Amino acid sequence: MAETVVVTGTRIQATGFTAPTPTTIVGTEQIEKNAQPNIYNTIAQLPSLQGSSGTSTNTFSTSSGQQGLSNFSLRGLGTIRTLTLLDGQRVVGANVTGVPDISLFPQLLVERVDVVTGGASASYGSDAVGGVVNFITNKHFEGVKANVQGGISTYGDDAQYLLQAAVGQAFLGGKLHVEVSGEYDHEDGVPAAGFGESAPNGRQWYRATTLLDRGPTVNDGGPRYLYRDHAQAYAYSKYGLISKGPLQGTAFDVNGNPFPFVYGSGGVPTHNPNGDVTGCISGFCVGGDRSGGVGIGASLKSGIKRLNGYTRIGYDLNSDNEVYATLNWSRVTTNNQPNPGAQKSNISVSCANPYLPASVAAACTANNITGFSFGTDNAMLPNIHVNTSRGQMRAVLGADGKFDLGGTNWRYDTYYEHGEELTWIRVRNMLLNPHYSQAINATISNGQIVCADLVASANGCQPLNIFGGRTPSPSTLAYLQPSNGPFQHTHQAQDVVSLNINGEPVSLWAGPVSVAFGGEYRREYYRVEADPYGNGSANGTPYNDAYPADPTLSTNGSNWYAGNYHNGTGMYDVKEAYAEVNMPFVDTPELGKANLNVAGRWTDYSTSGVVWTWKIGATWDTPLNGVRLRAVTSNDVRAPNLSELFAAPTTTTVPSFTNPFTNPPSKLTIFQNTIGNTALKPEIARNIEAGIVLSQPDWMPGLSVSFDYYRIKLTKGISSLSADQIVNFCRGGIAQTCGAFDLTGPTPYVNVQQFNLASIFTEGFDYEASYQFGLEDVGLPGRFVVHGLATNISSFVTDPGIPGSAPVQSAGTNSGNTPHWKLLLIESWDTEKFGIMLQQRWFSDGVIGRQYIECTTGCPATSTNFPTLDRNHMAGAFYLDVGGTYNLTDQMTAYFKIDNLLDRDPAASPQTNTGLDVNPALYDLVGRVYRIGVRFNL
């Protein structure tokens, strides 16, 4: 009986059918050889994936909710534009953006991963703009298998161990199939280093690289921006620095003793009210006392723990039909440090502060001042830690099989899926801004140092000595960083009902016509609840025992230094119907075989109405042996997600807002409401792909090669605007923004929302080749396989749709996600007893930003859209991995893997402020990693 091929990216199931959309398949063998603790790491190495999110990204984030979240981004279009499926079925989102977390997937039973590098909305619906990543599990596994793995980096961190086991058995004469799997993965991650320039545990690559801004009016022939290592801010220091006025340049050591700060660059404080430093540029010097730098104080990799349980029960009603149920329960916890201390600049400090050293107080008197401006990292405070927990329960009840109707054999699959995702985010050691302001305003009363604010004192205020690094008292810490901390609880739910039918109802001159059709209903819901100190206690939201009422805190929320989460809720549903036809129209020895593949989908969103998607593709197996041509064009969509439609609202008061509708423009106070926009429409993308495939030609049967061109144009892209932009765009004729504000009513407001204004254009080429051959002719056992994939991005242009802004070309920008070239090459030699694998990962040199004009002298006039820069280069990277296996018995295999064998350091990715100046989306921040393990298969 001929095998029926199920190809991700199409709904057609037919013998010998080849889809026109390019698909990369990562099988069990490659997954096992790569020996990663999380299958996400293996798939994310594919060159077509750019900008994926993993445990090395978002580590410096507090409020995004994406810490430790693992999800894919195809073509650099973002995780929200890549559809990730499990056995062709949707998975409930692990974030309000709707993206799932790969860490929550059952991984041991995955037998392959299909990566469709092209639009597939007509087949699978919304979000498949960049493509589809589909995890296919072994649905009838029988036996017992297990995997035990451990690993550690060459720096003694990121210790990891993985335990996996699966059991499968058939009962009732083979009719009942039961399989159960479980796994636990523990990864310590890479901790934050703290202050200064020493990267954690002996890493030597961090240099606080920064782009110093000489200002938009520079006209001396030099560049506006200067690329410099060892940048040091001059508005704050580790233990405190007087940053303006007559005492500017007075710093404090860990014991609170004053000393002259060393600025670097030969910098000399001007002692003026602006706090300028001669010899330094726009807030930064080079060199000097760099102990207060905070850029390397973020975790280089989040710690993660994964616990996953999976069960599938299938029952064969007869030889052609099965009913089944699956249950997946998973929990992932992650932790990271976003930054050390809690940096504060331009603090107003009184010279009467009782903690101030006597010599500095005397200097205040001598200079006839009563206070000064102060900046500090608050290094005496415990560091912030973000702890995230994601729990998922996903159940599927389905049936698949075939039936005869009208003389045609039809196949079907149908299922109902319900998924629940619960996410908890808790932040420890977070500063309450109002409490900090009250605690540093100290005075003496009855011989005791107390808070000067009587209301604050009556509500528990404890004074803080901000001069130096002395550890505050437990009562002061409890007041500044209460144990309750910022908190967010999110509940997401997804329900899907799907029916798909396909068959071959008629035959034409070139063969049978394949037809697939079906429908789907999907409901997405979320609700988020946050602590009242972040969310606010207005509108009936009560304080509680964990967050008691405090008159010194704002009832509008946003009281925390960071992590100000807010309440929100939202829901939408989708109704869809589709049809797909594959028609062979040529099948002769002289002309070869050619098929036409056409699909269309009708989708009705409850928030935005009806949208149509379609696909037209063709394949031609030419008369030339092994040569196939393929091409496909499609119209794809990404619907706005829950976060964009129903973002948790926040309100702030903005004084002196400019009203451009009066003559002359006037100033007024407005309420700025940051909210979702239920009027958003789906993004629309036009995909084109065309290529040639050479598959197993007679003259070289082990060779397969493909070359494909791709082009994606996305319009109506969803983008954010500021309050000023929203008002001014309306005045300039962009009607879409006019309903977002009212400046004439009794309570003027502007709703800061997202709008369908942006566009993205990208094009490039994909290359894939493999060659395998036996080694008997050279007297060696086994087979040798070479497999390579490469992606060339020739263009990636983003247009924000904002008047006056220029489209940004980011192809070859190594500070982002889209290098010009990205390559993955694997060589393996496998025998019955052992196997050896070499893997090379490489991406090309690039620039910091394509908007910069590189020059050192004779520079053209700088501009906002095209500023000048003296060095616009970022080196690419080459990573060498090596692995091997040894079969101890027929059922037991030992293996090892070394990632980044040469311990390649990341290149600097400078910013216009000191921060973590590396790009974890491209570069390896961990370094060399060793792994060993044993697999069992009984």
From TrEMBL:
Keyword Lipid biosynthesis attached: no
Locations listed in the record: Cell outer membrane
A Pfam family that the UniProt record links to this protein: TonB_dep_Rec_b-barrel
Coiled-coil annotated spans: none
Sequence intervals crossing the membrane: none
TonB-dependent receptor plug domain span: 19-132
Record-annotated TonB-dependent receptor-like beta-barrel domain positions: 378-901
Record keywords, A-Z: Cell outer membrane, Membrane, Receptor, TonB box, Transmembrane, Transmembrane beta strand, Transport
Record's bilayer topology term: Multi-pass membrane protein
Membership in a protein family: Belongs to the TonB-dependent receptor family.
Protein's recorded name: TonB-dependent receptor
Organism whose genome encodes this protein: Rhizomicrobium electricum
Organism placement in taxonomy: Bacteria, Pseudomonadati, Pseudomonadota, Alphaproteobacteria, Micropepsales
